[in-house]
Write a structure and sequence with these properties.
104 residues, alpha+beta, 3-stranded antiparallel sheet, 3 helices, 3 strands, globular
Length: 104
């Protein structure tokens, strides 16, 4: 999986996924669109986008502006779910679980 991010960190301090690549498939997203992506998502692309959300440390909750809170890359991977019409299922699949660091 590869994501192409549009970086607006100088003006808005955020990143946005504009293209996603998975198994010889490229999808172009319009993050400014108010309607979800209407094209067909292959199983590989759907799984890639789900993995991008599951391997993510952004907050499960949104702030008062309706924006996820966290690292800009993590937030971009969550925001693209809305554009692709995929629900965020982090809390459904792994309720109450958290990552733990291991010291070497």
């Amino acid at each position: 999986m590869c994501m192409h991010f549009h970086i607006g960190t100088l003006t808005k301090n955020e990143q946005t996924v504009t293209e996603a690549y998975a198994v010889d498939e490229t999808i172009h997203f319009d993050p400014s669109s108010v309607t979800p992506y209407t094209g067909a998502l292959s199983p590989a692309m759907r799984k890639a986008l789900e993995i991008g959300s599951l391997c993510n440390n952004a907050s499960l909750l949104r702030n008062e502006d309706g924006v996820f809170v966290g690292q800009s890359t993590d937030v971009a991977l969550l925001n693209v779910l809305n554009v692709a019409g995929i629900s965020d299922r982090r809390n459904v699949r792994f309720p109450g679980k958290s990552a733990q660091m291991f010291r070497f």
